[in-house]
Amino acid sequence: MVTASVNLMLDLDERSVDDLMQLRFWLETVGVEEAAGHAPGLSDAAIGELTSALHRLEEASGSPSERIAADTVFHATVVGAAGNPYLTAVYESVHTAVLSFELKQWVQRETVPEWLQGPISEAQLALHQPILAAVLDGDPEAGRKAVLAHHRVMVEHLEAAVAHTSDGT
């Protein structure tokens, strides 16, 4: 229901995507900080899920759908490590709404953005690795900084998608 409500809000006012991106950033920041706070008590299974999610992202092929799925799993797994199922559910709904908005922009342009073509780049991995490292090291401050760095790049991608759709390119 959260995803449906958010998508309706975006349909009514696409400019609200900035607010949605801010919410995604806040939710992920809280999730990473909380997960980092749980680091000493994370089970081997939880640590395995986290490292597996990053490995899946590293191994994602050039398929945009595979890359998007791996990215989604990575971020949801990290937020899930905070141990609050409501935070995870709301985060996943907001993340899904952002992806749906971006997909709509790509479909309208009939293209896939450059950053999503081919295998994942070292620069993109460098945005994800510090998030996981902060959680595993139990460092909420490093986690906050890593999520902020990732968020800034996401905002650039979103702005590019909207700009290209607006100017017809």
Overall tally of domains: 1
Structural class of the secondary structure composition?
A: mainly alpha
Calculate Rg over CA atoms.
16 Å
Assign the CATH superfamily.
GntR ligand-binding domain-like
CATH class: Mainly Alpha
Largest sheet: none
Q: List unreliable stretches of 5+ residues.
A: none
Mean pLDDT: 86
Based on CA inertia axes, which overall geometry fits? globular
* Beta-strand content: under 5%
* Helix-strand sequence: HHHHHHH
CATH topology: Four Helix Bundle (Hemerythrin (Met), subunit A)
Could you give the distance between the termini? 34 Å
Notes on the protein architecture:
This protein is mainly alpha-helical. The chain has a single domain, classed as GntR ligand-binding domain-like (Four Helix Bundle (Hemerythrin (Met), subunit A), Up-down Bundle). The protein has 7 helices and no strands. The chain is globular, with a radius of gyration of 16 Å.
